[in-house]
Amino acid sequence: MNKSKQRLSETELQKLATQFRESYMYPRKTHPSKNKGTAECPVCHEQSYGVIETRSLKDQTRRRRRYCHSCHYRATTYEITADQYQEYSRVKEIWDSLKMEMNTLETVINNFKRLGEIQ
Fold first, then answer.
1. Closest CA to 101 of 111, 91, 109, 90
2. Is a pLDDT exceeding 60 seen at residue 35?
C-alpha cells in the first residue's frame, strides 16, 4: 500500500505555526483588541498588568519592569537567549550536584563527630 503524504506549502506552514503560537504558547483570556499591552496579574488576576519599562542589558538580555494598576504589584522579568538559558541550565546542574556532595560530606563529618563524642 502506497500512502502519499500531502505536503503543505510554506505559507500554510507559517499559518499553522502562527495559529499554534497564538493558541497554545500565548493563550489570551480576552480578545487582543480589548487588552492592548496588558496581561493578567499573577496576584489579583485583573487584566491591568503591563510593562512600564524595558531596558536592553549586555549580552542581548532585556529587563522588563511590570506593574499592575489594580493592586500595585510590581515584578521584574528578564528575557535571555536560548544559548544563555543552556549555559544557565548546565551551571545549575553542576551546582546542584556539588550541593548534594557537600550535604553528603557534612553528614559524614557529623557522624564522625558523634562517634567521637560517644566513645
1. 109
2. no
